[in-house]
Write a structure and sequence with these properties.
Layout: E1 7-14, E2 17-24, H1 37-59, H2 63-81, H3 88-95, H4 104-125, H5 132-142, H6 181-193, H7 201-215, H8 222-236, H9 248-253, H10 255-268, H11 271-308, H12 314-326, E3 329-331, H13 332-339, H14 343-355, E4 360-361, E5 370-372, H15 374-386
């Protein structure tokens, strides 16, 4: 559906020149989102897939293991959309204070994304509302250290920004002037809290994402915060108990369509076209996440079975297996600490895992060796490398 008025253009000044900045109208759309046959079907399919994913999270043998991996997978994918080159392995090595060959700023950026998501979920779990204050807190965590740390972390911008081009005059899009940002974000906050507009949590998350990206309230980090907002809103609304949806995979694979549709909404008000794209992304990503979780659970079970058949060494090896499940790349000393084993006992147990092709030594060193759970990490990496 085309809507003639989705916002207004105002004149703004930046870099010594004038430009037309777009100030979006408050949500929800007027007239209301048209849930016709195809969009209603897309909503039902996405809701069903999200429900399956949420259900899988309750059946996993140890949700903490999956959360550790899935949160980091989303962090890597979201940051790669912004141009970082870090991999999942780079992030895990960085967390072990070992990041050979990885650009430090890239890894810090991904690590900050993990910290920002965990901060937001913790605050929501404490009863703090999903609000502009929380969004600013998340932004502050996201831009701590590394790139962007000098661009007012945790504060709405006080100058004009733009998207694409070298200056406002040739930009692809100019967000609202900084003087309009507080009012725009206040309206977005009211929309996040609305309960009487008939919108499901999924539709609300999709609309809110576009609105946030259109306002672009920070000098840096808007894309990552906008993607975090989707996860936080779904968890806050109870549509997901755990952040197992890595939607950035879909947005990265369909980056051109993603940016085109953001622009299309602003120009035409066709929120239905965007919503259909967003819901399809949720459906595909949730379905893929369920499949990956089931494969990982089978891998853990099969490897445990192989260890149990090895006889008297199995006890210690099973404890080391639990440790490397929790952190797929780790040092021998850390594995022993997590398993509650002496260094010699941990070393012997890890050697059994290597013999069984469950773990592999990563460094080739004699001291300070690192071990990797190859097949586990391969499942997590499949979609990252293919996207």
């Amino acid at each position: 559906m085309r809507r003639e008025e989705t916002g207004r253009y105002v004149s703004t000044s930046a870099g010594g020149e004038r430009a037309r900045a777009f100030v979006p109208a408050p949500l929800p759309p007027v007239p209301a989102l048209a849930l016709d046959g195809s969009l209603q079907q897309a909503l039902e399919a996405a809701t069903l897939a999200l429900g399956r994913l949420d259900g899988v999270s309750t059946l996993l043998p140890d949700r903490a293991l999956f959360l550790y991996a899935y949160v980091r997978k989303e962090a890597v994918l979201s940051s790669q959309i912004e141009g970082t080159q870090s991999s999942l392995s780079d992030l895990m090595l960085f967390e072990l204070e070992e990041a050979p060959g990885a650009p430090l700023d890239d890894v810090v950026e991904v690590s900050n994304y993990v910290a920002a998501l965990e901060h937001g979920l913790r605050r929501l779990g404490e009863g703090f509302p999903l609000s502009n204050r929380l969004i600013r807190e998340i932004h502050e965590v996201l831009l701590t250290g590394g790139r962007g740390s000098g661009k007012n972390p945790g504060e709405f911008r006080r100058s004009q920004n733009w998207i694409g081009g070298s200056r406002p005059g040739n930009a692809a899009f100019v967000p609202p002037p900084h003087t309009d940002v507080p009012d725009c974000m206040a309206a977005l906050e009211r929309f996040l809290h609305a309960e009487n507009d008939g919108l499901s949590a999924l539709l609300r998350a999709g609309l809110a994402h576009v609105q946030f990206e259109t306002i672009h309230p920070f000098l840096d980090g808007n894309g990552r915060v906008g993607r975090l907002l989707v996860t936080l809103l779904l968890c806050h609304a109870g549509a997901l108990r755990e952040p197992l949806l890595y939607l950035s995979l879909y947005l990265k694979k369909h980056r051109t369509d993603y940016y085109d549709l953001l622009d299309h909404v602003r120009r035409t008000g066709d929120w239905e076209a965007w919503s259909g794209f967003f819901l399809e992304g949720v459906r595909l990503t949730a379905t893929s996440a369920v499949s990956a979780a089931q494969r990982i659970a089978r891998l853990f079970q099969d490897d445990r079975g192989r260890i149990e058949k090895t006889g008297r060494r199995a006890g210690s090896a099973l404890r080391i297996h639990e440790a490397i499940k929790a952190q797929p790349i780790l040092s021998l000393s850390e594995a022993g600490r997590r398993a509650g084993l002496s260094f010699p006992a941990a070393s012997s147990a890890m050697e059994l895992l290597v013999e069984q092709d469950i773990a592999r030594e990563l460094t080739g060193r004699q001291r300070k060796r690192l071990f990797i759970y190859d097949r586990y990490l391969a499942i997590l990496n499949e979609e990252i490398e293919d996207s």
